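quick one
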Amino acid sequence: MKIYDWPTGPYPARVRIALAEKKIQSRVEFVPVNLWKGEHKKADFLAKNYSGTLPVLEVEDGTFLAECTAITVYLDALEGEPTLTGRTAYEKGVIHMMTKQAEIEMLDAISVYFHHATPGLGPDVELYQNREWGLRQRDKALRGMHYFDSVLRKQNFIAGEAFSMADIAVIGGFIFAAIVELPIPQECEALLAWFARMQERPSVREQLAIVPPIH
Ligand SMILES: N[C@@H](CCC(=O)N[C@@H](CS)C(=O)NCC(=O)O)C(=O)O
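structure w/ glutathione:
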């Protein structure tokens, strides 16, 4: 398998953490696509993923899977423990819901802030920016952090009582927050304590070692 990615990107980090959890990194060849040079918007990459985003998984038969959630579901079905996407119908549903909420309420919101209210990937890539929209999304992400804090006051992991793809999605949010220098509010004590626990996992520690420090 090949994974087209940019090693320090917050979304590719989700797939890298999933691979490390499943201990199947050796089955993958990583192919860097330079975001800062806009390589992800060039025709040959768009033929792999219409959305022009990373990561993209190329499976053995040469077909492509985009979207972190879809890629993680695929990898999880291959082999190995732990199970990241749930075993029972209910677990699968909750993990999917919380992963989607992690994207909508935190990770994607920070991404919009980055692309619209900061220099983002630079003028050659950021062809349209709307600062007001970006700032609104930053505030949405801050509200999202409080939401996940309230979730973690009642349970140990984002989707219940076991580590899952949903935890990885919120970790992606922490990584993106560090890149845009958006501090996690100190009053989000349960969220910060959860993140400290997440860093005890080798998969997470390994990924955090290559991204900006998280405060
Ligand atoms: N919904 C996508 C989002 C992926 C995404 O936004 N990836 C970033 C890399 S960290 C990207 O490609 N950004 C480039 C851009 O939006 O121009 C997913 O879950 O895979």
